[in-house]
Amino acid sequence: MLETALMISLGLIVAAMAMNVLRLAKGPDVPDRLLALDTLYVNSIALIVLLGLWLNTKTYFEAAILIAMLGFVGTMAICRYLLRGDIIE
Amino acid sequence: MSFTLLAEGVVAFLLVAGGVFAFTGSLGMLQFKDFFMRLHGPTKGTTLGIGCVLIASMLYFTVTQREFHVQELLITLFLFITAPVTGHMLAKTGLHMHLRFTTGTRGSLPELRDEDVGQSRVARPAKARHPWRTRQSRQRSRQKSRLPR
């Protein structure tokens, strides 16, 4: 049961990441691409957690935490740049 | 034994629910017509989906290794705090850049200061050209296809 659920979840999240990449490629404006990147890193955290479940290790959670924090900071930095033309005033 | 089976069922349900929510969020981001509509999918659906997946992982490791695992809760908490902030900043960026929206999208933010809302629409970059088909060659091929009729 658990393996089937894991496979279903993996397939759905990989499909979601593929759709994010599609939006990243064709998004008409910069904020669309930024939103696609933001969703892409959130989905990659889910993928890493599923990998940890599959391999039955908790080695990868540090990587997930790191991706979460750096992704947030990166999104904020690009938003600041688009809003103000400057990141740290 | 039955408790383990119950926990397994809950973990499986949470995993599938998380996958479905993440998929739905990304589908909304791909399919909606407008940036301000597209913002809704990832900020709600994907956040809920990843929360489900992380709680499933926490439950699984707590049951199998017989000790509490709270690291996943940390990521969940962090994502649930940062997702609204990101959505707010992205919406502000969209308003600032005067993105075009469809007629169904309504609303303006009168409380935004003038410096937050840009004065004019940001110029779009020119549409990318096809690598080998220029406009003239396309017209030529169109004329060729019209000739036989």
TrEMBL record, chain B:
Membrane-traversing stretches: 6-30, 42-61, 73-91
Bias kind Basic residues: ranges: 124-149
Keywords tagged on the record: Membrane, Transmembrane, Transmembrane helix
Pfam families: PhaG_MnhG_YufB
InterPro entries reported for this sequence: PhaG_MnhG_YufB
Keyword Transmembrane tagged: yes
Region (Disordered): 110-149
The UniProt record lists the keyword Transmembrane: yes
NCBIfam families per the UniProt record, alphabetical: CPA3_mnhG_phaG, PRK12674.1-5
Name used for this protein in its record: Na+/H+ antiporter subunit G
